[in-house]
Design goal:
By secondary structure, the chain is an alpha+beta fold. It has two helices and four strands, in the order αββαββ. Helix content is 45%, strand content 28%. A two-stranded antiparallel sheet has the order 1-2. The longest helix has 16 residues. It starts with a helix and ends in a 5-residue tail after the last strand.
Length: 67
């Protein structure tokens, strides 16, 4: 995984905690987390929330890095 993606995932985990209540996150909180992550880390060309049954998960598409 690239350093840019790693930084984005680290941001996502920190951002997600802001929206948690009793250790859980609502879909709305997960959507806010996904939006903030994509906005703050342009390595992601797409970022969406998906139903993981007991959790809200994230699916993302990252831009390729130019050398």
């Amino acid at each position: 995984m690239s350093l840019l993606i790693d930084a984005g995932i680290k941001f996502l985990n920190k951002e997600e905690k802001k929206h948690m209540e009793d250790g859980k996150i609502t879909r709305e909180g997960a959507e806010k987390t996904a939006t903030a992550t994509k906005k703050n880390h342009n390595v992601f060309s797409a970022f969406q929330v998906v139903d993981g049954k007991d959790t809200w998960d994230y699916k993302y598409k990252a831009r390729s890095e130019s050398v």
